[in-house]
Amino acid sequence: MSEIDGADASITPQALMGYHELLGMHVVEWEEGRAVVELTIEPKHLNRSGNVHGGVLASMLDSALSLAGLHCDVPGNIRRGMTLSLTTTFVGPARQGVLRATGTLRGGGQKTFMTSGEIVDEQGHLVAMGEGAFRRRSGSESSQGVPDPQLREPSE
Question: Where are the domains of the chain?
Answer without folding.
Answer: 3-142
